[in-house]
Amino acid sequence: MNVVPDTSVVVDGRVSAKIDDGTYQGATIMVPEAVVAELEAQANAGHDTGWAGLEELQRLAERADDGVIELSYIGERPDDVAIDAASEGEIDALIRELAEDRDAVFLTSDVVQGEVAKAKGIDVDVVSPEVEELGTLNVETYFTEDTMSVHLKAGAVPKAKRGEIGDMHYVQIADDPLDEATMDEYATEILNAAKEESDGFLELSKTGMDIVQFRDYRIAVARPPFSDGIEITAVRPIALTDIDDYDFAEELKERLLERQRGVLISGSPGAGKSTFAQAVANYLNDHDFSVKTMEKPRDLQVDADITQYTELDGSMANTADSLLMVRPDYTIYDEVRKTDDFEVFADMRLAGVGMLGVVHATRAIDALQRLVGRVELGMIPQVVDTVVYIEAGEVDTVYDVNTEVKVPHGLTEEDLARPVITINDFESGEPKYEIYTFNRQVVTVPLDDAEDGGSETGVNRIAKQEIEREIRSIARGHVSVQLKGQNTAVVYVDDDDISSVIGKGGGRIQDVENRLGIDIDVRTHDENPHYETGSSGSGDSGSSGRGGGGSTGQLTEPEITSRHIVVPVDGHVGETVEVRAEDEYLFTATVGRGGEVQVSRGSAIAEELERAIDRKAPITVHTD
């Protein structure tokens, strides 16, 4: 008897199993070179299926040496094009032709492959894939009741994060490091379990990285060359909560059931955001709402009748399009991080779907500010009307988000009325922040008393900055500002700048006053009791104009993108710097983690910076 196996039965070891049970004892096993090439390609790509298939070929060679079977390799090795097209059936077609030419039994565990072979009149033996009885994975033995994640790496001592939500500690959980053979065994077991267990699936498989969802565990398996050694990271939720376990439970339940809402669930990593999202999802599902999730990877622990979706064809936008056909009442989006995520969230919300998005943020207001620049300002309250901030597993803050046309807090002129997004404390109703456009820029103004013990309110700080910016665009020398009230200020400039700042008949300073809604008194530095030559003085804000400070500064080349002007800064991450053009002050900013300052295009500052770039003025960054 001649038997031609395909790749599927070689990978899962069914050929040797059929020999051992006597079915093919004494047969001639003809392994196509196409199978060998496909297994080799998979092994070179770091896939365990390739290695498993090569091990099966070695078992067949051993049985041939023992005289149990005859073993031969047939056909020609396919070219790279055929191997790359294996998923489209090219390799399968080659193997079927070899079985037909040799009048052999075609052995496969691929149902589609078997049906095609039967249609062509080939003698087919379709076997079910080998399924092992799965118990506890080796990696599961490292978990205790208070373990959130286990971290294993070849050559390193096992560690875990243990404790309670908000109080996790990264601790050593064994005495000896794991060797590479043991780690390889663990990794192979995890990947096999994902394929064989009904509660397991392979979420992501790339060269060097596999992400598995197995029961309650999300497990990432990294291999060289992607990582410098085999590494396994297994994570599971340590608490399944009910919405009634949280503060504001009754109020939030009433709010969520009243109508579909746009909610951002925010907090720092490990604070319990996803745990809270799970509780809300299950509550909504129990109250006659159709609930779906959008996750990558899928690891929320939700009721069985809540369908969990991931990226469709590599895109959450495609997932959203599909969900709009399904029309859920609520969708849980875990996690919303990139601009594309926020845009998808907004599109679904504006289509009428209730949305709960999980967002990393260290303050409740930071979650809402992520929408600024990504969603039209006036649309933000329609996209998000509730912000829930989680800290140490508890609901710490809830904000109610609305919009109204009004004069912003701290301004007095009626003609300064504009659309204002108001952020109120959910429990007390007390206003906490306002977001609006001020002199062509979007600003977020805290309405509490000054932070860090200062005496300035948020609107005062912004007003001073905008006055300085406006006057510096006119004056050539040093500028400082003192606010005398909510709508009055004194500006001190050099003697030579008085006439240019005031303008003919006071017209220029009146234009500035009209734009800002603030009465401005222009004086010389000699009239400033706090002024000291070469210094901005105590209680003033301001900085040097042309040649100010005599600092050479760091020469930089800004990059203009579709949304921002990016000013690269060498070092000084987290520090406050001045940006100047031809040593003329433009603005002050804080250097971000990426070693750069970003200015939103369309703002007045960005326009000045773009003009300086257009005229090829040297742009420099100055530190204290």
Automatic annotation (TrEMBL):
CDD domains: PIN_VapC_VirB11L-ATPase-like (cd09878)
SMART domains cross-referenced by the UniProt entry: AAA, KH, PINc
Span of domain K Homology: 485-598
Every AAA+ ATPase domain range: 259-394
InterPro entries the record matches: AAA+_ATPase, KH_dom, KH_dom-like_a/b, KH_sf_prok-type, Nucleic_acid_metab_PIN/TRAM, P-loop_NTPase, PIN-like_dom_sf, PIN_dom
Any one GO molecular-function label of the UniProt entry: RNA binding
Residue ranges, compositional bias (Gly residues): 536-552
Keyword annotations from UniProtKB, A to Z: RNA-binding
Domain PIN: 1-115
Location of region: Disordered: 522-563
Record family assignment: In the N-terminal section; belongs to the PINc/VapC protein family.
Protein's name in the database: PINc/VapC family ATPase
